[in-house]
Amino acid sequence: MPSPVKLYDLAARDEDIRFSPYCWRVRFALAHKGLPVETVPWRFTEKAAIGFSGQGKVPVIVDDGRCVADSWKIAEYLEATYPDRPSLFNGQTGHALARFAAEWTDNVLVPTIARLILPEVHDMLHPKDQDYFKTTREAFFGCSLDDLAAGREAHLAALRQALRPLAATLEHQAYVAGEAPAYADHVVAAALQWLRVCSPHDVTSDQPALAGWFERMLNAYDGMAKAMSAAA
Ligand SMILES: N[C@@H](CCC(=O)N[C@@H](CS)C(=O)NCC(=O)O)C(=O)O
């Protein structure tokens, strides 16, 4: 068994609550490769702790002395370094389609979920992170967290709309990547895991194919994602 890959993983006030949509991608990818992981809880304001990576965001991994930051670069690193383990991309075509899944998730799904749940995320953060989070997110979205909370119904409707292509796809195939899960599934499921851990909003139960896929992703890899508690 290789020594564990160290993953700097965003933590809430309760350090056992891990919710980052980008860190969850890496958790899924490591599990898919069958690599053991040792997570290091990290808070937004602990920039110095990941200074060695040359940037200020998680996920960051350290594998056998090698440091890699950024979820997409980490997925490519794992695929290149562990080619004999189950593939994250299944070849060039899969790699190209996984990139589309990641860009759609980063540019559509993550901001749409963010508008819905950022007020809840703020409340679950460690107090030392809260001012930083509020200031940076309000600047990014151009409105206050209170404004986002006031628009909750509209944000929920926008998220349901954004999920339609995913739900429609899953009516034809068991996984985003086809017959079995791969990195394209990890990326999308990680965003929905962020939603599940941070807020009680239900966006899947009226979409049986989407709900079934997400349940399979929660149960995959020995129920790794399901083991993280959902928001009450
Ligand atoms: N493109 C990066 C994005 C990573 C990212 O945005 N991480 C967030 C946590 S979910 C972060 O560390 N933010 C630090 C900050 O906002 O200061 C990736 O794919 O890994």
Write the topology of this structure.
Layout: E1 5-10, H1 21-32, E2 37-42, E3 60-63, E4 66-69, H2 71-81, H3 91-124, H4 127-141, H5 145-150, H6 152-162, H7 164-170, H8 183-198, H9 208-223
Parallel strand pairs: 1-2
Antiparallel strand pairs: 1-3, 3-4
Helix pairs in contact: 1-2, 1-8, 3-4, 3-6, 3-8, 7-9
The protein binds glutathione (GSH).
> Could you say which structural class the secondary elements and strand pairing correspond to?
alpha+beta
The 3D shape can be described as: globular
| Biggest pleated sheet | 4 strands, mixed
CATH class of the largest domain: Mainly Alpha
Distance between the termini: 37 Å
Strand content: 5-15%
Give the % helix. Answer: 55-70%
Looking across the biggest beta sheet, what order are the strands in?
2-1-3-4
Q: Quickly count the helices.
A: 9
Which features would summarize this protein structure in a list?
binds glutathione; alpha+beta; Glutathione S-transferase Yfyf (Class Pi), Chain A, domain 2; Glutaredoxin; 232 residues; 2 domains
Describe the structure.
Helices cover 55% and strands 9% of the residues. With 232 residues, it is of the alpha+beta class. It folds into 2 domains: 5-81, Glutaredoxin (3-Layer(aba) Sandwich), CATH 3.40.30.10; 91-223, Glutathione S-transferase Yfyf (Class Pi), Chain A, domain 2. A 4-stranded mixed sheet has the order 2-1-3-4, covered by helices on one side. A hairpin with a 2-residue loop joins strand 3 (60-63) and strand 4 (66-69). It is globular, with a radius of gyration of 17 Å. The model has no long low-confidence stretch (mean pLDDT 97). Bound molecules: glutathione. Glutathione (GSH) binds at residues 10, 20-22, 44, 56-59, 70-72, 136.
